[in-house]
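Appendix C: a fully annotated inverse folding record. The material below is reproduced so that readers can follow the format used throughout the book. The structure is listed first as tokens, followed by the designed sequence.
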């Protein structure tokens, strides 16, 4: 399958990023792997926080920058949020034993996936976030049938307004 892109859309502020993530949460299914691309401060962790809120998680959502992974058990699946920014070598992925987190009963969000290139399970979806003026631009790209199915389920007012 080739890739399946949605249009690029503008998120004018943090509230719009949280809203997009909350809407996207309804399209998720267990087993998905989502890579989050973007520079520091692009909104990747904000998106993860909004996604968890959209999934009904009420607890504190922490950035996994120092822990490397934060796990959130939910009713339908466990969401694992990885931040690989601090990896100096992709082999750290294997040493950490993170491969065991990926499976049919989990959704995995991975920030800085390029830091474990070649060892990380492949993405079903990529979310790219880029700073644009005072807001952010986002683009979802599906790389698998499961990713395309998720994007097909996902429709947002933000996309309609682009």
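Designed amino acids, in order:
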């Amino acid at each position: 399958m080739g890739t399946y892109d949605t249009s690029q859309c503008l998120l004018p502020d943090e509230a719009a990023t949280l809203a997009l993530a909350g809407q996207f949460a309804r399209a998720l299914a267990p087993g998905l792997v989502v890579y989050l691309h973007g520079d520091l401060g692009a909104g990747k962790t904000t998106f993860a926080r909004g996604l968890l809120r959209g999934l009904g998680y009420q607890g504190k959502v922490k950035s996994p920058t120092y822990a490397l992974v934060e796990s959130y058990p939910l009713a339908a699946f466990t969401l694992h949020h990885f931040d690989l920014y601090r990896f100096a070598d992709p082999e750290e992925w294997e040493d950490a034993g993170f491969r065991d987190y990926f499976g049919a009963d989990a959704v995995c969000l991975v920030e800085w996936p390029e830091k474990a290139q070649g060892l990380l399970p492949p993405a079903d979806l990529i979310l790219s976030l880029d700073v644009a003026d005072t807001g952010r631009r986002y683009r979802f790209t599906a790389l698998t049938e499961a990713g395309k199915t998720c994007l097909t389920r996902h429709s947002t007012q933000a996309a309609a307004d682009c």
